[in-house]
TrEMBL record:
Protein name: Succinate-semialdehyde dehydrogenase, mitochondrial
Origin superkingdom: Eukaryota
Catalytic activity: succinate semialdehyde + NAD(+) + H2O = succinate + NADH + 2 H(+); succinate semialdehyde + NADP(+) + H2O = succinate + NADPH + 2 H(+)
GO-annotated molecular function: aldehyde dehydrogenase [NAD(P)+] activity; succinate-semialdehyde dehydrogenase (NAD+) activity
Pfam families: Aldedh
Family: Belongs to the aldehyde dehydrogenase family.
Biological process according to GO: carboxylic acid biosynthetic process; gamma-aminobutyric acid catabolic process
PANTHER family: SUCCINATE SEMIALDEHYDE DEHYDROGENASE (EUROFUNG), SUCCINATE-SEMIALDEHYDE DEHYDROGENASE, MITOCHONDRIAL
This protein's GO CC annotations: cytoplasm
Keywords: Oxidoreductase
EC number annotated for this UniProt entry: 1.2.1.16, 1.2.1.24
Record-annotated Aldehyde dehydrogenase domain positions: 25-486
Pathway listed: Amino-acid degradation; 4-aminobutanoate degradation
Lineage: Eukaryota, Fungi, Dikarya, Ascomycota, Pezizomycotina
Length: 491
């Protein structure tokens, strides 16, 4: 029995079961398709084209042709199009949120928040498009003047993940288009419809034919990834996903020397010092850990709590977790939706079984839900140590694991004992302690007394195996630009 009726859209034209190449919504040349499922019910939502390398090559050709004129648009002209795109997303925010819940499963509140987050990148980069400034440099020879300009890097391939099917499209496409680049978006095979709706609105906003192209695929994704890496015409790849795949893309892109932006896995430490405000720490931990059912790369994965407040914190957090409502995201009272796949559920179970076998205890949850095979009860584990899988692997699910620590030096050492370094959280009322800890944590981002880690003007990205480059802000725009120095002699 279904958990909900199939949703309806106010604008049915936003549900598109096609790829988008050279300004046309179309099937793959092979006419092959793949099915997309609702993770809450496992019912089929629809089908999308299983695009091949031949389809990708057509998209690259279209983007290359469009680059010749798109890069000639003034920054102000590109700005006005991006601004109109932003306005159209806000006008259609309910339909886009519905598509996110339908194919991704996250709660409606999370989906609605993602729509506004996605729109914010178009808003911000619409303002930056007209402000790509160069430099005048004094040459050592007084008879030569130098100016440095910034030019679009060229055709870009944007490979987006399933966990933020709207926001990751705009976080990549908005700066690329603002810079004058053209793009091919390879969407995740689990969540193609949200991105199609976003791109449809871009089409209505006046994005010219060929400037944005969308390739959909599930089974052929590895072949497409390799072809993207080997393409001489594609000059940049932006990828959000696993560290394993990011390394494969980096290795295969070596022969064509592309620019790379890789936003990869995380294992975020969430450090609660004994002087922290308990209400703030619990609220931030709950939000960071369980947002989007725990399926974000900046989720609190290792929660370190100092000895003096350990028991009180566990008790408070357990009470909050027990009150979270699990169910279909279309029920607007729901906090936690289904996980994206049964493999995701199996990983959560694996981490729980491993921890319990090594002495951890389940405080709340710990089991699958009767609601369906992809629902898992929000879970709290205590009594963890660093030998358990949850300490070294990103769970990517609704599992909060609490570790005890004694000293500042100890917790910083343990927090840094990982191959990745994306985000970290610090809860403390001691300014000196906050500064010392944030300086010593080897991560790309640190949040102090807040769970909010991402915003359109802020550089997002990590160090070590968490990737290369940054998305967001002026730094994200620079990722799509090349420098050109022009020396002019006086004659």
């Amino acid at each position: 029995m279904s958990l909900h009726k199939p949703p309806t859209l106010a604008d049915k034209g936003l549900f598109i079961e096609k790829a988008y190449i050279a300004g046309h919504w179309q099937n793959s040349q092979s006419c092959r398709t793949f099915q997309v499922f609702d993770p809450a019910t496992n019912e089929i939502i629809g089908e999308c084209p299983e695009c091949s390398v031949a389809d990708l090559e057509r998209a690259v050709s279209a983007a290359s042709t469009a680059l010749d004129f798109w890069r000639q648009y003034s920054g102000r002209e590109r700005s006005l199009i991006l601004r109109q795109w932003y306005e159209l997303i806000l006008e259609n925010k309910d339909d886009i949120a519905t598509l996110i819940v339908w194919e991704n499963g996250k709660s409606y509140a999370d989906a609605a928040g993602e729509v506004l987050f996605a729109a914010s990148f178009l808003d911000w980069y619409s303002e930056e498009a007209a402000r790509i400034y160069g430099d005048i440099i004094p040459h050592s020879n007084r008879d030569i003047s130098v100016h440095v300009s910034k030019e679009p890097v060229g055709v870009c391939a944007l490979i987006t993940p399933w966990n933020y099917p709207a926001a990751m499209v705009t976080r990549k496409a908005a700066p690329a288009l603002a810079a004058g680049c053209t793009v091919i978006i390879k969407t995740d095979g689990l969540t193609p419809y949200t991105a199609n709706a976003i791109v449809k609105l871009g089409e209505r906003a006046g994005v010219p034919s060929g400037v944005v192209n969308v390739i959909t695929a599930l089974e052929d994704t590895p072949r497409l990834g390799l072809a993207i890496c080997k393409s001489e015409a594609i000059r940049k790849v932006s990828f959000t996903g696993s560290t394993r795949v990011g390394k494969i893309l980096a290795e295969n892109s070596g022969s064509t020397l592309k620019k790379l932006s890789l936003e990869l896995g995380g294992n975020a430490p969430f450090i609660v010092y004994d002087d922290a405000n308990m209400d703030t720490a619990v609220a931030c931990c709950l939000k960071s850990k369980f947002k989007s059912s725990g399926q974000t790369c900046v989720c609190a994965n290792r929660i370190y709590v100092q000895d003096a407040i350990f028991d009180a914190f566990v008790s408070r957090l357990a009470g909050e977790i027990a009150n979270l409502q699990l169910g279909s995201g279309f029920n607007k009272q729901v906090d936690i939706g289904p996980l994206i796949s049964q493999q995701a559920v199996a990983k959560v179970e694996e981490h729980i079984h491993d921890a319990v076998s090594k002495g951890a205890r389940v405080v709340v949850g710990g089991t699958r839900s009767h609601l369906g095979p992809q629902f898992f009860e929000p879970t709290l584990l205590a009594g963890l140590d660093d030998d358990m899988k949850v300490a070294s692997e990103e769970t990517f699910g609704p599992l909060a694991g609490i570790f005890r620590f004694s000293t500042e030096i100890e917790v910083i050492r343990r927090a840094n004992n990982t191959k990745v370094g994306l985000a970290a959280y610090i809860m403390t009322n001691d300014l000196g302690r906050a500064q010392r800890t944030s300086e010593q944590l080897r991560t790309g981002m640190v949040a102090i007394n807040t769970a909010i880690i991402s915003d359109a003007p802020v550089p997002f990205g990590g160090v070590k195996d968490s990737g290369l480059g940054r998305e967001g802000g002026k730094y994200g725009l620079e990722e799509y630009l090349e420098l050109k120095a022009v020396m002019t002699a006086k004659i």
